[in-house]
Amino acid sequence: MATHNDFGILAEDLAVEYLRKNGYKILIRNFRFQKAEIDIIAEKDNLIIVIEVKARSTDAFMLPQEAVTKTKIRSIVSAANHYLEEFNKDKEVRFDIISVMPDDKGKLVIEHIDDAFEAFDAN
């Protein structure tokens, strides 16, 4: 298995490939605002979709999506608001999580959780 950072990059690449195959238009990757980062911002069905990619080599401790804490949500929402203002986007926003984990045979499996959290979940 690749090192931690390499695995994260691979997971994001797989997520982008998955999203494109499913009709999403990738607007930007690794959007940064202050200390926050959004892994992927995409567009589909007249929505802006903010996507957090979580990768784990095992689910022994927690599922990847369980690592998206309230603090992380606040950070993502803040960065998303900045993105919308900076790029003058006036569309509804949805927050998704894509988790990438190996199955019992070592094949990487993508789980896409639509509408995983809402901006008010950060409070």
UniProtKB/TrEMBL annotation:
Taxonomy, superkingdom: Bacteria
One Pfam family hit: UPF0102
InterPro entries assigned: Restrct_endonuc-II-like, tRNA_endonuc-like_dom_sf, UPF0102_YraN-like
NCBIfam families for this protein: PRK12497.3-3
UniProt xrefs under PANTHER family: UPF0102 PROTEIN YRAN
Record-stated family: Belongs to the UPF0102 family.
Protein name per the record: UPF0102 protein JHL15_03220
UniProt organism field: Chryseobacterium paridis
